[in-house]
Amino acid sequence: GAVVSQHPSWVICKSGTSVKIECRSLDFQATTMFWYRQFPKQSLMLMATSNEGSKATYEQGVEKDKFLINHASLTLSTLTVTSAHPEDSSFYICSARDYRISHEQFFGPGTRLTVL
Amino acid sequence: RKEVEQDPGPFNVPEGATVAFNCTYSNSASQSFFWYRQDCRKEPKLLMSVYSSGNEDGRFTAQLNRASQYISLLIRDSKLSDSATYLCVEAGFQKLVFGTGTRLLVSP
User: Fold this and answer.
1) Using the beta-carbon criterion (under 8 Å), do B87 and A43 form an inter-chain contact?
2) Most buried by CB count within 10 Å: which residue of A17, A93, A112, B51?
3) How confident is the model at residue A41 (pLDDT cuts 50, 70, 90)?
């Protein structure tokens, strides 16, 4: 099956710093990548959808200037949490798909962010 | 009203039991649904798709009831390894909408 990796798997940072999370499709081309956030005991919430080479589409209530998404290639998307605060602590998961083949999304293993 | 709603559980069942979860959805035009499984602190993994005719895969059976706008997941002969959170997912236009999940605990 298609493999998606995320890096780092976990990160602890101080309040006010920025954190970059990478999402890579290892054995397929990801025309579309999705970024989700999951707080404890809650469902995955879609933050944004990014298509390769174009600007990300953010869900309502997600600040695009705080969560910067770059999808510059067919195998890599990055999410940068700028000026992170403790309330940004969460489990961030990306998924990827090649819409030319199917609509199935393949999920990365997630990144656990803790902001002190 | 939430787009996809699930009973959070937990459902505590003994090994070998049969257990069923329901999930309701609000968009009557929705066409595709999925069940995902998520283990603690892990990413969700696709368990099975649900179509109007239902779907069966081994011990797992998923059904879609369009009239009542719910889908179900039936697990027969529960195993300890079935302990996880089961996420009901609606495939909207270009995106997936996740329910909060139903937690299943299978005990010896």
Assistant:
1) yes
2) A93
3) confident
Torsion angles phi and psi, residue B93, rounded to 5: -65, 110
| Of the partner residues B4, B44, B97, the one whose CB lies closest to the CB of residue A107 | B44
- State how far the Cα of B35 lies from the Cα of B50, in Å rounded to an integer: 7
Q: Could you tell me which of A25, A12, A28 has the C-alpha nearest to residue A84?
A: A12
Q: Residue B54 corresponds to which amino acid? A: G
Q: Which residues have CB under 8 Å from B102's CB, separation 6+? A: B6, B7, B8, B9, B11, B21, B23, B85, B86, B88
Q: Quick one: average pLDDT of A17-38?
A: 94
What sign has the CA pseudo-torsion A81, A82, A87, A89? Answer: positive
Q: What is the CA radius of gyration of chain B?
A: 13
